[in-house]
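hey so i finally got around to running the thing on that chain from the lab meeting. sorry it took forever, my laptop kept dying and i had to restart like 3 times. anyway pasting the input first so we r on the same page abt which one it is
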Amino acid sequence: MALRSKAADLLERTPGGDLPESFGYSIKRRLLGPPMVNEQLRHQRLSNFLALGVLSPDGISSSAYGTEEMLIELLPVFGIAAFTLILPMTGVILFVMLLVVLSYREVVTVYTRAGGSYVVARENFGPRIAQVAAVALLIDYVVTVAVQIAAGTAAVASAFPALGNYVTEISIGVVLVMCYGNLRGIREAGKAFALPTYLFTGSVLLMIAVGLIREVMGNLHPQDVHNIHGTYTVGSGTATLTTVAVIFTLARSFANGGSSLTGIEAVSNAVSAFKPPEGINARRVLVAEGVILGTLVAGISWLAHVTHAIPYVSGFPTVISQEAKLVFGPQAHFMYFVVQATTALILYTGGNTSFNGFPFLTSFVAEDSFLPRWMTKRGHRLVFSNGIIVLTVLAVALLYFVGSNVNRLVPFYAIGVFTAFSMAGFGMARYHHRMKEPGWRRKLVINFSAGVLTSIVVVIFAVVKFTEGAWLIVIIFPLLVFALIKLNGRYRLEAQVLEDLGGRKPPKPPNYARRVVLVFVDDFNLATVAALRYANGLRPTVLRAVHFVIDTEQADELREAWLRAERGIALDLVDCPDRRVPRAAGELVAQEASQPGTQVTVVLPRRSYAPVLGRLLHDQTADKIARVVSRIPRSVATIIPFDEQARLEVLADRQAIRLARVPVPDGNGRGPGQPATRPGVTPIGAVTRGGKATVEGRVHSVEIRPVEHSCVLACRVTDGTGEVTALFYGRTHIPGVETGSRILLRGRVGVQETGLVMINPAYELIA
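ok and heres what got predicted. didnt touch it at all, straight out
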């Protein structure tokens, strides 16, 4: 029953109708939904309130782990004094944050196109130097996904300790879910993505306020860190330490605390998404984000100072979860879960920010020809699918090999972040020095100071975190910059070779007196027949088939099959004793092309398979020959693919059609698969060659074909059972004969390579 249904569907399908979709595309459509068209690529403008919620999760959420990262370095050396030192260390971090925010205020005012520090560096230092910023941002986006997701999972594990053994698996699963969601085309421009920011900010500000009130009232007490197990070691103090060791520890703590500044640049990467005036609105949102982030970092550090919330080696319970439990106490224990839920939510949302920024950045860099061009293509759902997949693979690999632990991931973090800050600061300083607009000296000092300070942070981080993983970034960073510049050089060389005409009139095509077409054949099969049909359609002066003899028995079998087929095309057998077929092919083509006024076209039949299977079954001889031929003047190679799997499906469909046409006479003597016809009219599918017939159908296509000293009008007519081509020699147009019109043809039916034909038949247009 299913076979007859499929056959009936095939009978209704007209030639040239919708092509069947591939299996892979069908799976993609089911997973990702129907494709989106370009008209759906709308640019949504954000209000300041919505923009703050949508663009700042990455920055604001970093306050959840910045204080904890500083305590991890201070506690083993300074002991209990670390809870006092956390306050001045936080002050230093806030000072750096202030300079960065002031610097980026200038960035969003001047550069209202998305791109952030990459665009700043490109416009002020040139595209090559800008690749330093590009690599810094690319590394930043990858590590941001890993750190934010790991911190979010730590928040979940803090509330539900039973999940602690599966944090890495959970984090990888979350990244994969985000990848899937972004491939489907979710957008960060919506209230759903703004909600976590305001929920987290509100709940943590409430926690800070309640904590301060309880401290003033005298009923918020520090916990005894010496009786807690699983935490980082609490040192005995600095009495036995040298000054160098103390400074080194403070530098490590400062480097860890720099993770609180990540995400500030997100606003500069989306200035064009703001409502006009874009620059002013982006500045306001950036300042608001800086104020909120600074307040949260300061408040969480103060509560750590008061409560002695201590980091655990496992990464959970987190410092902020301990603060929530101690501040709200058993009377308002539900608020503890509120804080944990909003913390996890904003951290996961902050990780998702990279799935928007990374693909857009790679598309910008690829447009400048420093990354592969396929990074610029939008996918099935109008997103940069390739960038999303690359980001997912890198983030999952980082989580798998390093683990879902924020402290182990941080050494990979700040070098990329602060290098981007440095490029933005120095770039804006150069801009102000060059433009000399009103107030340029003050702006130059701010931006130059930000560039210098953030550069110092990069050096500190590379030194103090070198053995913990920063060495990998120190090595990879210059290698990536070098690779991007080399790739750009390759693209520029290709552009010079291809020679863009730039609006000039293209040269006239040469008029060769002798056109030679050589069809290289290895066996006589359907792929060879398809190549011969194509070659014959080129209407060459000379057409020959060529077989390079490696195996004499195979050559004899091919010659016999060729003679039986009677193709009317000469088969040349060329000896190839050293079995170097590409070289022999090149010598033959060069010999033909050396004759004056001759152009040689080599046609190469090739069977197509799935990529992996094709590499296993075949040695890519056609590609090797094509490469050799392409280097010979006045010669060109054309590969004719022949999809065997598709051919098998076509043969199966034809068999189904034949089964569906088995005549089961009805009361009128007509089978159910046959269309109703007028007396004397034969269905095209039932026409036999060599005799006269009268057929009726709809004109499917009209084509003018050149022939020697004349032309022929070819009309393809279908009636649901088959098709026939009517050839009207010497005609270029027949009034009323056009695509879609119905026509009745009378004449003798013949067969050509393209199917049934009727030459100069009598015709009648049917209304």
